[in-house]
Amino acid sequence: MSDVCTSPFCNAGWGELLSHMSPYGFANFGIAFGLGFSVVGAAWGIWLTGSSLVGAAVKAPRIRSKNLISVIFCEATAIYGVIMAIILANKIKKPDEESYQLPENWDFPGFYYAGYGMFSAGLSVGLTNIASGVSVGIAGSSCALADAQDASLFVKILIVEIFASALGIFGIIVGIIESNACNFPIAALDNGN
């Protein structure tokens, strides 16, 4: 066997790959990462909180109902991802379909700007929501365990959990700001005619 690569992708670098991928692909990957990572963050947080809640409820059954608020805070991170996915999906517009031939003055940089911007918005929201879900899960776990030991600690630790949940809110705000400038062109550029 020969070690010589005959594929046209052998000498291609990352820059060539990124510049030849469809901007619509980048936009859809941004939606997928934003939604997917947000759900992973919520699931991870619910797992952390729920396992501690069920374990601590064996010792103190009174904590079961009021500590469900920790699970709700974790679930909010998934909702932030859904909101961002809806916002980004509504920004994807098909170009004019007058003909299959693109004019010379078609706005290709505008397409890539919108695609990369939507990718970065979705990725930043998704990664922020993973961090938010895990931090809310850890704080919720601590809240359940502390409440099982001493009921007066519930509100004090719940405040820390609220601050951890704010990370997800900050992430979606940053994602909305990033996505505001991401608009796919729907017509050719005007040459001033």
UniProtKB/TrEMBL annotation:
CDD domains: ATP-synt_Vo_c_ATP6F_rpt1, ATP-synt_Vo_c_ATP6F_rpt2. It holds the Pfam family ATP-synt_C. The keyword Transmembrane helix applies. GO terms for molecular function: proton-transporting ATPase activity, rotational mechanism. Coiled coil: none annotated. The chain crosses the membrane at residues 26-47, 68-90, 110-132, 153-177. It is found in: Membrane. Residues 29-88, 119-177 form the V-ATPase proteolipid subunit C-like domain. It is a multi-pass membrane protein. This is V-type h-atpase subunit. It comes from Chaetoceros tenuissimus. The lineage of its organism: Eukaryota, Sar, Stramenopiles, Ochrophyta, Bacillariophyta.
